[in-house]
């Protein structure tokens, strides 16, 4: 059995939804449909988690072998205005820990963005940090996990922040298209 760990926050955990509607479950379903029956998806989503929390939390997950690692943290950093440099350093530390334990692991980084309505340079710096990390580490990259979901009230829960079941399907599509590339190259 090969493990795919999706390590993230409430977006990955499927906040406010039954587990089968969260995108990691949808990925597991698609893997089965496409004949990748030797892959198991581990949902490492924790609502409210930041990249700083992730640097500590990742250690527990490294007890299980990981073949593909999908890193989807950072949204809460953006919401809290944590300096982009700090978020970047935390994500790099998580990547380093995973690579150190599993040198052959394939890594996909899910990019996050915060709305441009946030004043100053922060939104641009925040968006850029994900692309730069992907390039520096030569890893696969999903430009924006919430593409098409943010600001669309039909795709979000009443809180306007967390994707509903339909929104989770888009997170699934963005992630699956990159994961499929990785699987086809393996």
Automatic annotation (TrEMBL):
An annotated Gene Ontology molecular function: phosphatidylcholine lysophospholipase activity
Q: Which SUPFAM superfamilies match?
A: SGNH hydrolase (SSF52266)
Give an example GO biological process: lipid metabolic process
What InterPro entries does the annotation carry? Answer: Ester_Hydrolysis_Enzymes, Lipase_GDSL_AS, SGNH_hydro, SGNH_hydro_sf
Q: Which Pfam families match?
A: Lipase_GDSL_2
Q: Where is the SGNH hydrolase-type esterase domain?
A: 6-170
Superkingdom of the organism of origin = Bacteria
* Protein name as it appears in the record: GDSL family lipase
């Amino acid at each position: 059995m090969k493990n795919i760990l999706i390590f993230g926050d409430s977006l990955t955990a499927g906040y406010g939804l039954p587990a089968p509607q969260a995108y990691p479950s949808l990925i597991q379903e698609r893997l089965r449909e496409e004949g990748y029956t030797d892959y198991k998806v581990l949902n490492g989503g924790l609502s409210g988690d930041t990249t700083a929390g992730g640097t500590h939390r990742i250690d527990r997950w490294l007890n299980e072998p990981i073949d593909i690692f999908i890193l989807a943290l950072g949204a809460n950093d953006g919401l809290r205005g944590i300096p982009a440099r700090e978020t970047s350093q935390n994500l790099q530390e998580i990547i380093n820990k995973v690579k150190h334990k599993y040198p052959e692991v394939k890594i996909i980084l899910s990019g996050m963005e915060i709305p441009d309505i946030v004043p100053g340079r922060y939104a641009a710096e925040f968006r850029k940090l994900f692309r730069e990390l992907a390039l520096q580490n030569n890893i696969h990259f999903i430009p924006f996990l919430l593409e098409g979901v943010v600001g669309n009230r039909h795709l979000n829960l009443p809180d306007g922040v967390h994707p509903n079941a339909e929104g989770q399907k888009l997170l699934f599509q963005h992630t699956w298209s990159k994961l499929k590339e990785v699987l086809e190259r393996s």
